[in-house]
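Students often ask what a 'structure token' actually looks like in practice. Rather than answer in the abstract, let us consider DDE Tnp4 domain-containing protein, a protein of 417 residues. Its sequence is given first.
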Amino acid sequence: MDQMAVMDTLRDCVTLLQLVKQARDLQSQKKRLWVRPWLKRRSDKSVYNNLVQELSLEDHDSFKFFHRVNQDQFLELLSLVEPLISKQDTRMRKVVTSHEQLSVTLRHLATGESKQSLGYAYWISPNLLSRIIPEVCEALYQMLHTSHLKLPQTEDEWRRVQADYNNEWQFPNCMGALDGKRVLIGKPAKSGSIYYDYKSNFSVIMLALVDAKYKFLYADVGGAGRASDGGVWDKCTLNRAVQGNVIGIPPPSTLPYSNIVCPSVLVGDDAFPLRMNLMKPYPGKNLTPERMNFNYRLSRARRTSENAFGILSAKFRIFKQPIITSPKNISKIILATVVLHNYLRSKTPDEYRIEEQRGQQHQTGNAGQPEDAGAMRGLARIPRNADNDAKAVREQFMAYFNNEGRVDWQERMAPLH
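Now compare that with the structural description of the same chain:
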């Protein structure tokens, strides 16, 4: 009996081992499933191969609204990025074409639609979209930034920027409006409190310089949310370039119709320090009429940066909600939208009028203070000490704006004494 019991036990063990092996084989077969069967019908069923094709033939306005670029621009962008994103078919599956990759990426930037939702529309797995979107964004930035995100490097280039600011916004010697934003993100995995900011959000910091026509001259992205707002400019590469004067900044020059000599300056808000080459408003409420006039003139010049951010978030609505991806990919997404913004400003400036109006809604009219919306938040206003030379430059601009540089509309808006 004992021997028979042992044999029965051995048979049971063998049967159990066979069942375990069968389960493992079945699991291995499932893992070897390269693509879900319904995804194989992408060429017949996806939104790109149906709706987008119909829009390209019958409704050009809807095609542009769908992608935020018209058909000619879509094809031009495709010709630029295709060498970097095209793949080859394999025996296991057909690749997602370059056309589909660009389309789904532009749709993601235009709407902020989740990868799961886009996957069902384009018949592409969310995991694959998680690779496609960052790759296309990186390719767009790589191919466009040399021509559409170029910081001036010579005195002549800077003087053209200054002339635009003087003509459009009546602020001479201005090299651009500086602004910073916190872009809200989903909590990155295993990041601890690195991206946790003082307003209890997870964010990355974007710093930008904008010209008089709402185009970005410089963008720096990637500062972790826990970083102090006060230290963003101090650690910025643009600050070091300005301080070291390695970008061909023009020397001090005489302001128009006066004998006042002032340096070339950037304009910013209270989040930035007052420096000889960086002007900010006079602080406080009980200001003299002359200082109020200076603050207004500086606000007019600085609002170009607020409007540029407003136009950017109106055009690319991915900024209307926290962006859910890794911080590395978020930087690629933001930089891609910046170069696309400049590309569209260059190609079709007249078509930005509606977005300009939306962007200007970010202004409250109170000394240019922004009304934050969506996933873009302004940097905190931080009191700082300034050296006497910087204060003297601000006093010179104030004197100019209240005398030789006073303009007709300023007479009507001047506060009563």
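One point worth highlighting: The beta strands are 174-184, 203-210, 216-224, 253-254, 261-262, 265-267, 278-279, 376-378. Ask yourself how you might have guessed this from the sequence alone, and why that guess would often be unreliable.
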